[in-house]
Structure formats: structure tokens, C-alpha cells
């Protein structure tokens, strides 16, 4: 009875193993199909889709560059206007600080005391008005200097954006090339990517970068296979020597 139970248990394990072996290709194909579908939904696999995404990124960057150039021109124009206003305010301040007195006393007037009192009142009024105007001009000059420094800071900030955009574009292309090369290597001989990038020219194009990554990985895999082959004869010769 015990032997019969053990035999039934072994038979069940063998039957389960056989069913799993028969169903494993279908399960593997289904899992591979789902994985490819998810990858295709997230990342472009074909060279055409990658080039379309690259063109879209280029167009987007071009629009941003045009907008930044327009902002740069507006800031430059604003900077020039503020500088002209500042120069004009400085000239006005210099003119008022070195101006002549408004009250000119003429000699040999019949009513000297009245004229002198009127002159003092006019001089005091003109001095008060001049002080107010000078204070307003000083405030205006301070405001213009603040706006001028702010415009200069904005101009210096916008000057470095083109280099950053170019570096970011190169980084995106490198990442896309590496990812596409990994997909081509995982697909093996059935992958259409090596045929698509075979005629690529230049070093900066996306197809050329994919081709370079494929060559590097092929060289590494070839070196590993050669090392394995060289190690196999040595292992075969060792028993003969003993």
C-alpha cells in the first residue's frame, strides 16, 4: 500500500511536470507579447517612431528658443529705454543742481524793501520746488537703476539656455540609442533594427548612435564567446594528462 501511494505521488509529479512543459511555450509567448505591448506603449521601438519623437522634440525646442529670443529682444529694448531715461534724469538733476537763481534783483528800484521781500519769497518757493523736484528725480533714478540691474540679470540668465538645451538634446538621443540597442539585442536575429540602421551615416544622428551601440555589444559578446571556446579545449585536455 505504501509503495502504491509513492508510485501515485511520483506519477502525479511527472504528469504535472509534463503539463507544465507542454504549456510553458504558450505561457512564454503570452508573457513576451504582453511585455512587448507594454514597452511599445511607453517607448517607441521602430526607428520611424524614434525619429518622429526626435522631430517633435526639436520642434518644441525650436519654439522655446524663438520665445526666448523674443523675450531677449524685449529685455534688450527695455534695457535701452531705461538707460535713456536714466541718462535724461541725470542730465535734469545736473541742470537743476547747477541752475541759476530764479530771482534777479535789478538795481535802482523805487521800493527796495518790497522788492527784496518778494524776491525772498520767490527764492524760497523756487528752492522748495527745486528740492521737491530733486528728491523726485533721485527716487526716479533709484527706481531706474533697480530696473536696469534686473534687466541685466535677466539678460545674463537667458544667455546660457541654448547650451543647456543642446546638452539635454544630446543626452536624450544617447539614452534613446542605448535603449533601442538593448531591445535589438534582446530580440536577436529577428529584430529589424540592425537592418534599418545599417546605412546610417554621420556620428551625431540617432541611427548612427544605435549602430555604434550595437557594434559595441556585438564586440563584447564575441570576445566572451572566444574566451569560452579557448577555455573548453583546456578543460578537455586536463583528463588526458592525468
Automatic annotation (TrEMBL):
The lineage of its organism: Bacteria, Pseudomonadati, Pseudomonadota, Alphaproteobacteria, Hyphomicrobiales. Residues 99-133, 185-242 are annotated as: Disordered. It comes from Bartonella choladocola. Keywords: Membrane, Transmembrane, Transmembrane helix. The chain crosses the membrane at residues 6-28. This is Aphid transmission protein. It comes from the Bacteria.
Amino acid at each position: 500500500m505504501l509503495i502504491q501511494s509513492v508510485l501515485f505521488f511520483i506519477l502525479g509529479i511527472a504528469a504535472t511536470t509534463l503539463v507544465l512543459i507542454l504549456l510553458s511555450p504558450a505561457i512564454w509567448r503570452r508573457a513576451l507579447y504582453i511585455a512587448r505591448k507594454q514597452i511599445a506603449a511607453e517607448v517607441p521601438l521602430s526607428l520611424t517612431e524614434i525619429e518622429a519623437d526626435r522631430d517633435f522634440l526639436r520642434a518644441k525646442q525650436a519654439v522655446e528658443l524663438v520665445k526666448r529670443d523674443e523675450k531677449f529682444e524685449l529685455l534688450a529694448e527695455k534695457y535701452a529705454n531705461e538707460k535713456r531715461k536714466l541718462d535724461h534724469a541725470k542730465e535734469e538733476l545736473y541742470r537743476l543742481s547747477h541752475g541759476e537763481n530764479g530771482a534777479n534783483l535789478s538795481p535802482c528800484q523805487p521800493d527796495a524793501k518790497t522788492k527784496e521781500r518778494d524776491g525772498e519769497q520767490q527764492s524760497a518757493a523756487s528752492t522748495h520746488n527745486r528740492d521737491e523736484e530733486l528728491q523726485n528725480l533721485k527716487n526716479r533714478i533709484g527706481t531706474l537703476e533697480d530696473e536696469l540691474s534686473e534687466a541685466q540679470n535677466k539678460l545674463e540668465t537667458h544667455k546660457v539656455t541654448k547650451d543647456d538645451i543642446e546638452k539635454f538634446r544630446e543626452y536624450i538621443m544617447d539614452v534613446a540609442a542605448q535603449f533601442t540597442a538593448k531591445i535589438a539585442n534582446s530580440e536577436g536575429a529577428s529584430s529589424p533594427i540592425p537592418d534599418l540602421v545599417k546605412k546610417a551615416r554621420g556620428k551625431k544622428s540617432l541611427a548612427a548612435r544605435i549602430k555604434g551601440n550595437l557594434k559595441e555589444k556585438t564586440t563584447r559578446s564575441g570576445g566572451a564567446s572566444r574566451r569560452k571556446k579557448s577555455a573548453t579545449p583546456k578543460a578537455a585536455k586536463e583528463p588526458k594528462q592525468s
